[in-house]
Amino acid sequence: MNKSRKNGGTMLRYEDFEEKTITRKEIFHGKIIDVALDEVRLPDGQTAQRELVFHPGGVGVLALTDENKIVLVKQFRKPLEQVIFEIPAGKIDPGEGRHPEETGARELEEETGYRAESMEHLASMYLSPGFANELLHVYYAKNIKKVDNPLAQDDDEVLEVYEWTLAEAKQAIQEKTICDAKTIFAIQYWELLIAQGRV
């Protein structure tokens, strides 16, 4: 790979940045993540260690009701030791990797009881590229409707569904009850959709 970057007038090649793996020690294989410890050689010849988390990827869904309210789920997040509000989201299951919109549609229905007429891709982003390869896809669920017999929630999930106005959602960001990147991004994109006259 011969990608280049300009730095102060000097073109830096991909090789000027690349960290080459010397050894990899697999630490943990879990239901959601795998963890490894790499020893790498830096471009200047020195060595360093990198703690790596491998994740299959996930999908988050911006879903708006006919009343122009965002659909959120309230749940306890153990790493934070607190309850927060988030857009419906979940990890990509085996077989869904090439079609993450299927994950989004499934998670939306499982977590909220809503089904979308169609899914529009908004963005894909790496959440913590310093140590994890998780790629999150964010979709806009169009023309959502409640279904009589939605897909069942995961057995280990306890969720409550809320529908908030834009003002309520922005207030929750200020109060830090909305504090995750995907949900803050979705709310900002919602504002963009409003500005474009699309909702």
TrEMBL record:
Name assigned to this protein: ADP-ribose pyrophosphatase
Domain Nudix hydrolase spans what residues?
Answer: 53-186
| Entry GO terms, CC | cytosol
Query: Is Coiled coil among the key words of this record?
Result: no
Pfam families per record: NUDIX
Q: Please list the cofactors this protein needs.
A: Mg(2+)
In terms of InterPro entries, this protein maps to: Nudix_hydrolase, NUDIX_hydrolase-like_dom_sf, NUDIX_hydrolase_dom
